[in-house]
Amino acid sequence: MNLLITGGAGFIGGNFVHYMVNKYPEYNIIVLDKLTYAGNIETLEPVIDKITFVRADIADRDAVYQIFECEKPDIVVNFAAESHVDRSIENPEIFLVTNILGTQVLMDACRKYGIKRYHQVSTDEVYGDLPLDRPDLFFTEETPIHTSSPYSASKASADLLAQAYHRTYGLPVTISRCSNNYGPYHFPEKLIPLMIANALNDKLLPVYGKGLNVRDWLYVEDHCKAIDIIIHRGRVGEVYNIGGHNEKSNIDIVKIILKLLGKPESLITYVADRKGHDMRYAIDPTKIHNELGWLPETKFEDGIVKTVNWYLENKPWWEKIISGEYMDYYAKMYENR
Ligand code: NAD
Ligand code: DAU
Description:
Blueprint: E1 2-6, H1 11-23, E2 28-33, E3 52-55, H2 61-71, E4 75-78, H3 85-90, H4 93-113, E5 117-123, H5 150-169, E6 173-178, E7 181-182, H6 191-200, E8 205-208, E9 214-216, E10 218-219, H7 220-233, E11 239-242, E12 247-249, H8 250-261, E13 268-271, H9 286-292, H10 300-313, H11 315-322, H12 326-334
Parallel strand pairs: 1-2, 1-4, 2-3, 4-5, 5-6, 6-11, 7-10, 8-13
Antiparallel strand pairs: 9-12
Bound molecules: nicotinamide-adenine-dinucleotide (NAD) and 2'deoxy-thymidine-5'-diphospho-alpha-D-glucose.
């Protein structure tokens, strides 16, 4: 089995590469990644001898076709994306190029060279948000697409394109829409790793607005397991929501992290809210559970301890990141906010 994983040097893609290398040592795994600011070859260091790594842009048609010609993938799992909402608000264009056009190029390659499965890794953000005062409401696969940020609009566009390629060209597509992930190798621009890194450095913890927005957190390995099941047993043409009924407000997450690290709540600072900030995400995972038997295995209480410990034990991985161009990003996003 030739498995092409795009965006495999990023957070979830990297965890997925580790997971698949260990679970399917007989597979030929090819990782395609542009190594943007969010891609880190060191994430792949523990498995680098067991994969083929190609540095390329999914929106570069010639490069992608060449990889398909050489590697003849049977399955493609597309994690490659610009993934940070705040960056999409600052500069939407690269989100459209990578997330929409890049997806199109990959699917054109799949049509041209033939494929058993193309899997599009999407997000619950395509459904927009839910109100805080309606805890009975959840995102199902039937919830209308209703995006808020340039990031989520670009991801929704890619989903629609994938569904169109299935219907029009018969491309064997599946799509998964997952809630917020956390775990090892998470880039420290996102809430949980940013708060861990700042707390460890006794820096202020910038909470947007009042910190009441709710996210539905899933340990990254559970997401990897769900995708493994979908690419092998999921029905072609279908969308599967992935989430584990683990809703927490941002302020609660930040307080949990401070407590685990033995740091004071006086480090919390409330800053200007994100523009268009989604209030609440909450996934209904009934379909993937009933059809494919998937259920999350890691409880949040355990997953967050594992995550904090990973950041304590792997300081060189994230300290290198936050000492580089990240410093300019941080100053731009958070100074005078
Ligand atoms: P990430 O930003 O950590 O990693 C993205 C990876 O894609 C990086 O390695 C980057 O170098 C690579 N990349 C970016 N542009 C590329 C291009 N043009 N060509 C090739 N490679 C490119 O993102 P992540 O958090 O791991 O998210 C992975 C996927 O999962 C994304 O599609 C995202 O929309 C989706 N998703 C993320 C979450 C989450 O909580 N992080 C939840 C649901 C869905
Ligand atoms: O729901 C899935 C999505 O989850 C993925 O599609 C995205 O790729 C991923 O980045 C994530 O999006 P969010 O916007 O939910 O994640 P982020 O970590 O950026 O923010 C989580 C919440 O924390 C959100 O309500 C904003 C808030 N926040 C974030 C940062 C970085 C803060 O209060 N302070 C911060 O400094």
